[in-house]
Input
Amino acid sequence: MEYIKDNLLEIEQQIKEAARGVGRNPGEIKLVAVTKTVDVEKIKYALAAGVTAIGENRVQEALSKYEYLPSDIEWHLIGSLQTNKVKQAVKIFDCIHSVDRVALADEINKQCLALDKTMDVLVQVNVSGEESKHGIELEEAEKLIRYAASLPALKVRGLMTIAPLADNPEEARPFFRGLKKLQVKMQEENIPNLELEYLSMGMTDDFMVAIEEGATIVRIGSGIFGARKK
Output
């Protein structure tokens, strides 16, 4: 599993290069290692190599790994979340990246209130408008952001998007730029209880472009662990 350590070193170097290339501090960027289909032993190896945050797509898979991993790591839910899975999700995750509708925000708030817990959330925005992508439409995002910020058990820490698949990472740039534009617009409105310091955007194939456009969280799976099992 030495390749995991080697891949991490390479990813970290690329993060530094992308950040410094646009005058940013690499320390502002959080790496979330995407562990979908990755077994516990490989995750532990990545943690030993310096990973501090992992991202899971599905609640059930995360639950199957949770008790076997250290208690001091950050758990990020990066996949779409059904309302009937929220009660389980809020027990283990530290941040939910995929809030894309009022009903989901309400359910997370309800379940967190029952646990006396505040949940960090990101509003997922479908900047590209692709029907296959989850996320609220760009035109509707402001309304959802304002609403989520009004809920007592939610802390809206930022925004998330997934760019369309493309052979050339440059093709993702307009979508990352669009999310950054929304972040700046909302920050200028000084909405109570709204921080929006995080932009979760960029994956293995396009994270350097995302960093150039303002990403503060990059979600990288195959770049660390190799091609995902089907």
Notes: The mean pLDDT is 96. The CA atoms of residues 67 and 121 lie 23 Å apart. DSSP finds nine helices and nine strands in the chain. The beta strands are 30-34, 53-56, 74-77, 95-99, 119-126, 136-137, 154-160, 194-200, 217-220.
